[in-house]
Amino acid sequence: MCLFSCLAAYQSAIFAIFRKLASMPHTLGITGNIACGKTFVGQLLLELGAERYIDADSLVHRLYERDQPVAAQIAGQFGPTVIAPDGSVDRKVLGALVFQDADALKRLECIVHPAVAVLLLEELATVSSHGIAVIDAVKLLEGRSGELCQSKWLILCPEEQELARLMARNQLSEEEAYTRIRAQAPIAPKLALVDEVIDNGGTREGTRRQVTAAFGRFREKFPS
What b-and-e string marks burial along 187-198, b requiring 16 or more CB atoms within 10 Å of the CB? Predict the structure, then answer.
């Protein structure tokens, strides 16, 4: 079994243990391509009554900070050029390396995913047993964190909107943004793996209506 498969199996095992804990909150997972609006949907869910919104990308930011073991492992794997002057991981430099090389991306995920899993479980442990936790993760389905969720939602938007948002948010050129978009897994196979699909390609009010309806269905199915 390759290292990547071993780490995925480890993640699956610790998640299986956590799911059995009596105090585990109801958990809703949202996923979708980069810059599709997952954060907006997560904030709407907080407004609607979710107790905690956990952004996996924010957890990665914490792991990339100076003096963190993960940052040191990344430097060892990809070289000192991926470390910024302040000692943290330079996400733009690292992204330029891994989003053009599928093998490099897998090697990065082998370092990051297990550490994110530990932080994710720590975050979930702070949610009350009657609360609702929201996990926002691009790799919700591939990275196994979806196993913690009673319901999984896929957030969509047209690629041109995704491109514009990504360029503005991450200060990327059009070529850099397209490279990251092309590195993502295709959306179509995910449709059969989720419970709700939210189209975030229209107005914010339109997205709000969809999220409100979907959250209502979730609460009916999983009452506190």
Answer: eeebeeebbbeb
